[in-house]
Specification:
Its main location: membrane. Belongs to the ABC transporter superfamily. It is found in: Cell membrane. This protein is α/β, with parallel strands linked by helices. The chain is 37% helix and 26% strand. The protein contains 9 helices and 10 strands. It has a 6-stranded mixed β-sheet, sandwiched between helices. It has a 4-stranded antiparallel β-sheet with strand order 2-1-4-5, with helices on one face. Helix 3 runs parallel beside helix 5. The longest helix is centred in the C-terminal third of the chain and has 16 residues. The chain is globular and about 50 Å long. The structure holds adenosine-5'-diphosphate and magnesium ion (MG). The site of magnesium ion has 3 residues, from helix 1. Adenosine-5'-diphosphate (ADP) binds next to helix 1.
């Protein structure tokens, strides 16, 4: 039995000028998988993630999301992006809007859902992350960890089919990392498909269904957390792990 492919990446290449960052990456992400991408700084992890929702244009290759070719110029990328939630290192909440407004803007404006429905769903998700009582607060009144939990909720309010995370805890004070990782763990337990670029090896070990090591333009090694962390085969991976574990 094999789960349905949600994202199929074929021979993805990306260069910036003469620098080739991704040199022909092929991978297949199934519904319900939690894929953690690890690798050295500058290896192209963010570029890979940004290509997946076309924040970066691939130089060549194919990316199929739910069977639709994202690289095809005819594809309506805006409607595709609504089904792909993205959470960045910086939370990027709208500072002049309260939390509830931040959460309901996309569903109401882009998805034409009613205010009642959008607010009810936002409140339901806020309850789940323990921030319902902050619905009327403004972003700057919240801690970094709270803002990042809100940023995750904001993405979820669009009811995406996949969530992309780019080092969501890297900008946080250490004591706030856990609360954000816990929200992500809950999501994984609910079988949300997730692609997570992270330096949190503990999270990857505990939550990932698959870990992929990106370096030198390729996924040099991939496997279960037990395989990858317990018995790394690639020399670059061994040396990377010796520095981060
Ligand atoms: P990582 O997320 O693994 O740290 P990035 O994907 O951010 O790596 O960057 C990979 C390489 O691509 C780096 O050398 C970076 O300088 C380069 N790069 C990333 N984005 C751009 C851009 N928009 N223009 C030029 N070079 C870029
Ligand atoms: Mg990055």
């Amino acid at each position: 039995m094999s789960a349905k492919s949600l994202l199929q990446v074929k021979e993805l290449r990306k260069q910036f000028g003469k620098q080739e960052v991704l040199k022909g990456i092929t991978t297949d992400i199934k519904a319900g998988e939690v894929v953690c991408v690890i690798g050295p700084s500058g290896s192209g992890k963010s570029t890979f993630l940004r290509c997946l929702n076309r924040l970066e244009e691939a130089s060549s290759g194919q990316i199929l999301f739910e069977g639709v070719d994202l690289c095809d110029k005819k594809t309506d990328i805006d409607s595709v992006r609504q089904r792909m939630g993205m959470v960045f290192q910086q939370f990027n909440l709208f500072p002049h809007m309260n939390i509830l407004k931040n959460l309901t803007l996309g569903p109401m404006e882009l998805q034409k859902r009613s205010r009642e429905e959008a607010e009810a769903y936002a409140m339901e998700l806020l309850h789940k992350v323990g921030l319902a009582e902050r619905a009327n607060a403004y972003p700057q009144q919240l801690s970094g960890g709270q803002q990042q939990r809100i940023a995750i909720v904001r993405a979820l309010c669009m009811k995406p089919d996949v969530m992309l995370f780019d080092e969501p805890t890297s900008a946080l004070d250490p004591e706030m990392v856990g609360e954000v990782l816990n929200v992500m763990k809950d999501l994984a337990a609910q079988k949300m498909t997730m692609v997570v670029v992270t330096h949190e090896m503990g999270f990857a070990r505990e939550v990932a269904s698959r870990v992929m090591f990106l370096a030198d333009g390729y996924f040099l090694e991939e496997g279960s957390p037990a395989e990858l962390f317990g018995n790394p085969k690639n020399e670059r991976l061994q040396s990377f792990l010796s520095k981060v574990l």
